Model the fold of this input.
Amino acid sequence: MTATAEIIAIGSELTWGMSLDTNSHWLSLRLAEMGIEVAYHTTVADTLPGIVDALDHAATRADLVIVTGGLGPTADDLTREAMATMAGVELVVDDSSLTHIEGMFQRRGRTMPERNRVQALFPQGSSPIPNPHGTAPGIWLERPASPERGATLYIALPGVPREMKPLFDEAIRPRLAERFGTGLYVIHKTLRCYGAGESRIEEQLGDLTRRGRAPEVGITASEATISLRVTAKGRSREEADALALKDIHFIHQQLGDIVFGAEEDELQTTVARLLSQRNKTLATAESCTGGLVGHLLTEVSGISAHYLGGVVSYSNAAKTELLGVPAELIERHGAVSPEVAQAMATGCRARFGSDLSVGITGIAGPGGGTETKPVGLVYVGLAHEGGIDIAEYNWAAERSSVKLRSAKTALNLVRLCLLKP
Amino acid sequence: MTATAEIIAIGSELTWGMSLDTNSHWLSLRLAEMGIEVAYHTTVADTLPGIVDALDHAATRADLVIVTGGLGPTADDLTREAMATMAGVELVVDDSSLTHIEGMFQRRGRTMPERNRVQALFPQGSSPIPNPHGTAPGIWLERPASPERGATLYIALPGVPREMKPLFDEAIRPRLAERFGTGLYVIHKTLRCYGAGESRIEEQLGDLTRRGRAPEVGITASEATISLRVTAKGRSREEADALALKDIHFIHQQLGDIVFGAEEDELQTTVARLLSQRNKTLATAESCTGGLVGHLLTEVSGISAHYLGGVVSYSNAAKTELLGVPAELIERHGAVSPEVAQAMATGCRARFGSDLSVGITGIAGPGGGTETKPVGLVYVGLAHEGGIDIAEYNWAAERSSVKLRSAKTALNLVRLCLLKP
Done:
């Protein structure tokens, strides 16, 4: 049986346009991967009759309804009540959920506010979906078939993406695969690239990205990181896998070290992996990126064995005091210059005693640009055992983008250096 | 009459998750500005029965239905046909639309493909909305009241945002303002809070967040930052403003320095503003946050006059070498301890010669926790002219959240210190 699904997002902040719903989009992709087709998205404001109507109408057209949002502790969180009303049942307390919520507060050294008690209420006959990522458990509710309509499964999840996504992947996805799985295997593989533009990559891949080709290969770009997504279908997992792997092999051949990873990899996860494999240490000296390289690296757990730390040398005094960049050098060439990037990197490497170090100096804007040194001009120095490399970039972009692209480029230089035999 | 609106986005690429619908969000904001409340968004795949059902069901709950997408020339563009089916009428050719479409192709030096002829078809009784921005005209269809439901106005617009937006602003908005214009002015004001949980804030605001109250006050939380959104309506801008200001005044009274800003403010923008007003300088010593505080601060342009820089002291050696934290102190109390947070903050202040400095040390996880020092334990030290403050936090959260909440808390301590007379 091919299931038809509907996704219902709840929240006046969504229908009023204050926030953009991204959960429905994410869930659609996840369900598509399992062969479950999402035919409807509904977004509904925080009113009880509106939510009940949306839940009820969904049963006329969908076998599976996934609801996000409205599970918080406040008065405008109405999902629990609406589900009970739709199903014609009472709300009852689930003791183990109550214990879990109290525990979450206890671990933060706080007592549970009385309001949060409502998060342990469930429509009679439904099952709680334990949520290790937050206080609100999800709800699993089976609505039996009636003379007018088939059976419908309702699953309510928290609206916060940080809680919703892992909860779906861990607790919901396997159960849905078992129940609605179609027998047609759809495999998605993503390769992540850095160091060439979208159109150049498309050129190098030739026929691969043509529409209608199978497997399908899509390209998306986000702040200079390019993702190639291969979608292969087969009657068995092996068949789909083999088709996908053939394309992946071709992409690696064509793009070489432009491919830095797969699936959810970021440059920092690849750098962390390479640092560990090569048993090398890294330190950072950041001016215009303001600590962003350090922040990205320290998003990777276990990095502490290889990332020794850094200096955010935002002021010239910090460059001199903490990195040993001669004041005279800054005076002569300016703080944004290849000479200062080099001195920052070498000074940082000496200070931290690291194997590798990067020095980044640039003009993030919007102010501070001149004719010869425009906003977006960035120098990155990389000091390593073999010497020092300096690269110049010119990002015509706004402040946040200049920072992010500079940080990524620095990480990419570290990656390429670590790849060398 | 206050109109209730529904927005229907049509396209399988949306329900399947290949594209993210941003039109509904944009239209919601535009309608809200006119006092028209959007209570429902529906997204529906390209199937005739599905679209007809969505259009039909919308009439049970909305006075105004705006449809985007499905007006192109290809076989999966079904909006015209679905509107005719719903209204129980035929599709008829509109000659002036046909002339317009032929003209668009002529001006591009091409003859009109036969397919595009369907774009000149309209449900009988509806009016074309000429579209100077593309080939597909919009559709204006009045569905009269029936015994079961009130009258509903349907407006179909192209799905391409580049065509939809100007067409709405030029051709639709003035007509809607005239028809549904309540003469009612709607004002939105947002206050941003840090330092108390969502339910605690709601408690302190008492009646304010009660549903149905006017003005309406909504609460949303994102990584411990709480937003309070006041929506006030009045017969004049002045009346609406006065109502909103009364609530804002009350919120300030009740929450005091928990309110850190308004509208788009983030803690770092408020800190940057206060540093500038008080003419103070700041430096940072970050362990578990890995440079995130520096990154957030340097997202604010112009911060370089007041943020001197920082040290990412990820390794113990960096704490000792660059911040002067005695190795013996780390040995005795551990790197994650109030003593080390204090020494990091004071060492950082001395090194950078700043007025204020923060020192942050903690266990971001998922590894590295012990029974006495669990994952999420964070100490923040704040060194200032008057001495040093140390605070302890226990975030039961995953790595990224521990980092972000710790960084925000550090910024908040700086803010509170700068607020002192």
